[in-house]
Specification:
This protein is elongated. The chain is of the alpha+beta class and 558 residues long. The chain is built from 15 helices and 20 strands. The protein has helices at 3-25, 30-41, 43-46, 53-76, 81-100, 108-123, 128-150, 169-196, 282-285, 400-411, 419-433, 448-452, 460-473, 534-550, 554-557; strands spanning 153-154, 163-164, 220-222, 228-229, 236-238, 243-251, 260-269, 275-277, 294-296, 299-301, 311-317, 324-325, 333-335, 346-347, 353-354, 361-367, 478-485, 495-499, 503-511, 515-519.
Length: 558
């Protein structure tokens, strides 16, 4: 193989890998990238068309059209999408350069862009697919640079006759082997350090506070408990049957155990992530709960006597990634066994529980019977200052459709409608008119406006964000809750199990008479996430093994 052909092959492989990198970030789906893959593979056949005016006009027109489409999307979507749109534009330019590179032109810009795309995509990925693609990218990049240097252009007074120097097959082969050896040494040393040196991927990245997309658009996302509501995450989604929670009814009726088990409440609007957990400020210190947790030394209770017929449950938290304890909103008491007596059990102002450490833990809960849980009350004409944080709307432009829909639906109700009627009417409308799709499904809505208009389906986070935005726009205090939802009882009906795939989001509304109560707008009977195929389970196992490598820290090495 002559050097010019070898260099062009290297460049073609680099562009293909750039497309793979962008696909792994989730910045664009395969439907968008498939034409670019095809044009990259067809580049050797299209090279003979470069001198034709119609060909160049078609290319430039297509690039301009896609650029305008991305510009329009950036104006309508969140600011966080700018980086994703920039990556798509970058790989489009790579394909454009590849298919319009003439014999007298050096591909310096193409190499520079390839490096930048790999660098940016690398900050957004730590999954196995990206790592494997990079193992091919690195030696190809080094070999390509050596070929580029060895075939420097032979200058001529006439620019049209300036061409790259071409080496015969023998020197080309030696050059490629030399570049491959250099790349192997560098990669080998890098892998040795990577596998043996502890690292902390949980440390906040340099740009994390400025551009809140890094580390959250990984090509591999797993359904699981989150203590924030982020509608901007993109990427391949897997659903795991890994156990997260197991509940055993010790005393009482299984029918009194709710399906919704909360781990966090999200009351603070974010500019790009919609809702997050309040760690300080009025939303964290609010005293709107009528019966906050009291006690200590591994035991917390709500004030007042326990109702007759209360259920006593044994709960085992198996989720290794959180320090939160999961419990229904109605829980009245929590007790840690003696082996966890040294844990820092805290009852937070929003009624959630924090243990201060992750890992498997066993605890007991007490629940009142379902018949004793009252709901409903009049509309709050002027909510007090304690409830003001639960009326703040996200600054995101993506909630306009939800606010407009809330007003249209409210106009259909009588002026004296009670709060519970308004809440139920809005939740029923969302569950009836909008389509549920499991996370990561093809055709899922990319933003809240698209979802609320009914142009695409969505998962539970979109249903919860829509209802919370609608209620707050009508002056109804509410917050989003995240945790797990399951009705998967054993045949005897005494053990309720939750898997990672059962992670769920819903809404909690504040009732002036009875306090907070849960409203789940996701359609009844909709699975939290679709079942995984054999191929998906295999990919999940490989991803889990890789995550064990990337999560290696000093404690793991010890």
């Amino acid at each position: 193989m002559r050097s010019d052909l070898a260099l062009r092959t290297c460049v073609q492989v680099l562009v293909l890998l750039n497309l793979v990198f962008v696909q792994r970030t989730g910045a664009a789906g395969l439907g968008w990238l498939l034409p670019l893959y095809a044009l990259t593979l067809a580049a050797p056949l299209l090279v003979r068309l470069q001198e034709r005016l119609l060909y160049r006009l078609a290319w430039n027109g297509a690039v301009l059209a896609v650029f305008l489409l991305l510009l329009r999307h950036a104006q309508r979507a969140e600011l966080a999408s700018v980086l994703e749109d920039g990556l798509v534009l970058a790989v489009l330019c790579q394909v454009h350069l590849l298919n319009n590179l003439r014999a007298n032109q050096r591909p310096d810009l193409l190499f520079f862009n390839a490096f930048l795309i790999a660098l940016v995509a690398g900050t957004m990925n730590r999954d196995l697919g990206f790592a494997l693609a990079f193992l091919v990218f690195a030696p190809c990049f080094v070999v390509g640079l050596q070929l580029l240097q060895a075939t420097a252009a032979v200058r001529s007074p006439d620019p049209a006759s300036t061409r790259l120097r071409s080496l015969d097959a023998g020197p080309t082969r030696r050059l490629v082997l030399d570049g491959a050896r250099r790349a192997a040494v560098v990669l080998g040393a890098s892998l040795l350090v990577f596998f043996l040196w502890p690292r902390d991927f949980e440390r906040e990245a340099f740009f994390q506070g400025r551009l809140d997309r890094l580390q959250r658009t990984s090509g591999g996302l797993e359904v699981g408990f989150e203590d924030e509501l982020d509608l901007t995450r993109r990427g391949d989604v897997t659903a795991s049957d890994r156990p997260a929670l197991r509940v055993t009814v010790l005393d009482g009726r299984s029918a009194d155990v709710p399906a919704l088990w909360r781990g966090a409440t999200l009351a603070v609007p974010r500019r790009d992530g919609w809702f997050a957990r309040a760690t300080d400020g009025p939303a964290a210190r609010t005293a709107v709960d009528a019966d906050p947790w009291q006690g200590g030394d591994g035991r917390l209770v709500r004030p007042g006597p326990l109702p007759a017929g209360s259920a006593r449950l044994e709960v085992v938290r198996l989720d290794p990634g959180t320090a939160r304890l999961f419990a229904p909103l109605e829980a009245r008491a929590v007790l840690l066994p003696p082996e966890h007596a040294d844990a820092d059990l805290q009852g937070l102002a929003d009624g959630t529980l924090d243990l201060g450490r992750a890992g498997t833990v066993r605890y007991e809960l007490t629940l009142p019977p379902a018949s004793g849980r009252a709901l409903g009350g009049p509309v709050l004409a002027e909510p007090g200052p304690d409830l003001a944080p639960f009326l703040e709307l996200p600054a995101s432009a993506g909630g306009d459709e939800a606010r407009a829909l809330a007003q249209r639906l409210a106009d259909r109700l009588p002026p004296d409608a009670e709060q519970r009627e308004i809440v139920a009417f809005l939740a029923e409308h969302l569950g009836r008119e909008l389509r549920y799709l499991p996370p990561g499904s093809e055709g899922s809505a990319a933003d809240l406006d698209t979802f609320v208009r009914g142009e695409a389906g969505g998962h539970c986070e979109l249903f919860a964000a829509a209802l919370a935005t609608m209620l707050r726009s009508l002056g109804v205090p509410c917050r989003v809750a995240t945790g797990y939802r399951s009705a998967r009882w054993d045949p005897e009906g005494r053990v309720l199990t939750f898997a990672a795939r059962d992670a769920h989001a819903w809404v909690e509304v504040h009732d002036p008479a009875g306090g907070w109560y849960a409203v789940d707008p996701t359609p009844a009977g909709a699975p939290v996430v679709a079942g995984a195929s054999a191929w998906a389970r295999l990919r999940e196992a490989a991803r889990g093994a890789w995550n064990a490598v990337t999560g290696f820290d000093a404690e793991g090495r010890a």
